[in-house]
């Protein structure tokens, strides 16, 4: 096993060296060795990819569609994305010049942020939030500005956004809005988005709208800020959650042409082009599978209701989710432990895996995230074990 020569060990991108690995993944790996543990940690749909989408991938291989695709993605998929977004948002994105197919929404986030940011720039992120945003902002040399939303129902208020902009001025180049939100499952209403859009439109800044969970809402309609300020919006989405295609790694960016022209360079530098079989599967999913998320959504909603009822019976406060497949629960005030301490003991003593709320930034401490993208029997067993654990602590 080779060891790095000491004379070159200090040659490293200092921004990369200074960021920690994903707290979500790191904690999940740490507790995975607990024998018999039931994990509600990772947002991984427990459904299979729709058969017609899988068949499209198979056919593409049989037909030897094995060469590099266009760097922005195959035109069939970009056209499918354009048609889908026009139906969902009312905004037409030219598939040739305003859409990029990325390797998951993760690459879309990376390519978007590294395209627009320079050292000294600032990015606003309402927290608790998907933790991946934080290190990417830092690696790009920019400064993260967090706004704690825990006192406002986990929704960014116009007043707090305006205050952050007043304090940081023109250095703010972007705000990231993820809704339905990971980790809380909270969705923004049309009125709430409109109030934020009115403020954003008065400033020289982008809004990155991460709408990866937009097809998974319960009893509410999803609205996109892209329909309000398309000229300032970078829309991020993909098929990982809507069609259970996490391993296919297909996401996308949609935005005005001038942004896409530069973002497509960064995208090409990072990945060249996405996988062909995955792209043909995604194209089929968007062409003939827009109803595929419906049964998944119905199942998730039943699981949400079950887990929410069980947690309430245990006396736990929750942020009731209107979308995604996570539930954010407050650690009982009688337990004097950090979220990491509580989650670690819950894993080792009750054999239930949850994610510490501190992994999601300010406002997350004192909370835990549970994913209900897990089998019904696993969720029931996890709730039974957690209930027993809390009862024993109370004795």
Automatic annotation (TrEMBL):
Residues covered by the Aminotransferase class I/classII large domain: 37-382
GO annotation, biological process: amino acid metabolic process
CDD domains: AAT_like
Entry-linked InterPro entries: Aminotransferase_I/II_large, AspAT/PAT-like, NHTrfase_class1_PyrdxlP-BS, PyrdxlP-dep_Trfase, PyrdxlP-dep_Trfase_major, PyrdxlP-dep_Trfase_small
Keywords from the UniProt entry: Aminotransferase, Pyridoxal phosphate, Transferase
EC id: 2.6.1.-
Cofactor(s) the protein requires to work: pyridoxal 5'-phosphate
Molecular function as annotated in GO: pyridoxal phosphate binding; transaminase activity
Domain of life: Bacteria
Keyword Transferase: yes
PROSITE patterns: AA_TRANSFER_CLASS_1
Family affiliation: Belongs to the class-I pyridoxal-phosphate-dependent aminotransferase family.
Protein name per its UniProtKB record: Aminotransferase
